[in-house]
Structure formats: structure tokens, C-alpha cells
Amino acid sequence: MLIREARIDLHCHTRISDNSLGIREVIELASRQGVTHLAITDHDTTKGLMEAMRIGGELGVEIIPGIEISGYDYERGKRAHFLGLYVEPGHSALDAICGPMIEQRHNASYRMVHQLIEAGYRITWKRVEEIAAGGSGVYKQHIMQALIEKDYCNEFYGDLYKKLFARAGKGKVAGLAYVPLNYINASDAINAIHSAGGIAVLAHPGQFNNYAAIPEWADKGLDGIEAWHPLHNELDVIKAKELADEFGLLLTGGSDFHGEYGDPIHVPGYIHIEASYLDAIIKCKFEKLA
Predict the structure, then answer these.
(1) Dist CA 138 CA 57 (whole Å)
(2) 126: buried, middle or exposed (CB in 10 Å: 19+, 13-18, 0-12)?
């Protein structure tokens, strides 16, 4: 299958996880940006993918069913995110490892909100839940929106965010409302994506400096690396290409669009890849099926 005249974005979120915009709004925006192929990769869930594919069909945008799993490299003590492309929505293997992650995150957010209330912040859990309504649970971005509404700050990731949610470790003091999460083992994430019929891609390795783990994960079945991402510089792209060449991995890229909860210029299609890269992904998918 050769794709021509395409604008391809393989990393995008919706309100189902931590984007401020709903599924239709995201796809409509993608269409206006000239995107022809868009992977919906919400965090730890495939909820809404069937609806997204239906809307994409209406608007002429091919929706690639995906997921972004919140993993962890326990050997090196680093977070690691994994994109699953062309996964089967609602597959039991994904639900088995991501369901507990979603519940844990939601419960942690509940604790965060009540710690903030006890500290004197005039927000309510009811309002935070209203902001997150329709999604898979409450994220820190929803809590920040509630704080912005009460005029505690005017930006999502400024000084207040750091004060409240800074992670502990390496000499850093935990934020006032920081609640740790137990993330999914990296190998389990790769295996679950494969079980769901998907292509397993290491997302934005430059963000968490996951490069050292790539040889090990390639040996365990990792299929690709996200080379082009808003957080990546030229050196990150070079590293990703070199590792992909060395270990026979696919290359992907995308905007990682989050609406108001991210950089407003990173709209769908802000980062896009050449059609040949998607051709290679589709070929890999068919080979796995065979």
C-alpha cells in the first residue's frame, strides 16, 4: 500500500485523556490543517476510538486507532511512554494493564485535590470532575484549570504547577499536592500493544532520555521510535535515526497535540511525517498478521 499526497500525524490526544478539546473538535481542526492521517493516542485508553474513526470518515481524515501507555523503565529508574499504533480498540490485553493505571491516576487526582483544599485552595472535587467530564478520569491539567478559574494563576505549567506537583527525587522536594504513581513496566506495555495487534513505538525518547534502553527493548520486540516530536531537537532526531538504523526499527513522528493543555502552536499536523514512513508501518502491521 503506497500512500501519496498525505499529511500524517501519528501522535495526538483528545478530551478522553488530557486534551482540552473533544474528539470531533480535534478531528475538525486536523482536517482544517490539511491532515489526511491522524493517530488518536490517548493516555492508557482506547475509549472513543470507534467514534473517532466514524467522525474521521465523515471528514475525510483517516483515523489510526492508537494508545499511549504510561510505562516505566524500572531498571534505569525512568519513565517511558509507548505508542501503540493500529491497536484493536477495547482489546483485553490493553484493558488489563491500563485499566488499573487509569483508576490509580483518578484516585491520585482525588487525593491531590483534597490536599489542596486542606491547604486552603478554594477549589472543589465536583468542579474538577465537571472539567474532566466525558474523559477517562481526572488529570493534573483539569486541577490546574480549576485553579486558573479561581485566579490562583493564569497558566497551566508555570510556577504554581511546579510548586504543587513537582516530583520528588534526586534532591528535589515533592510538591504540595504530589502523589506518586506506579507506572506500567515497559516490557508489559510492549507486549500488550502486540497482543492488541498494534505496532509498539517508543514515544519522545528525548523527553525522558530513554535512548540507553532501546537496544534492550528492541530485543523484546519494540517496533519503532518516535523521532519527530515538539520536545525533540536536531540531536534527538539524529539519535533516533541512528538507533532505528542499527536495530531495524521504524520511525514515526507527531504533534502530541493537547489543545489548551499544551503549546497552542502544536496543532495536529504541526509535526508530520513523510508517507514512506507510514507505508513502512502498514507493511510491518501486515507482516505481523501474516
Answers:
(1) 29
(2) exposed
Which run of H or E residues covers position 224? strand 224-228
Question: Is residue 172 assigned to a domain?
Answer: no
Q: Name the residue range of residue 281's domain.
A: 8-99+187-289
User: What pTM was computed for the model?
Assistant: 0.96
Residues 92 and 110 in one domain: no
Q: Residue 204 region, left (φ>0) first, then alpha (ψ -120 to 50), else beta?
A: left
Whether 182 maps to a domain, the answer reads: no
Residue type, 79: R
What is the tens place of the pLDDT at every residue in 88-127? Answer: 999 999 999 999 999 999 999 999 999 999 999 999 999 9
> Is 97 exposed, middle or buried (CB count within 10 Å of its CB: 0-12, 13-18, 19+)?
buried
Q: pLDDT tens digits for 174-215?
A: 999 999 999 999 999 999 999 999 999 999 999 999 999 999
Element of type H or E holding 21: none
* Separation of alpha carbons 154 and 133, rounded Å: 22
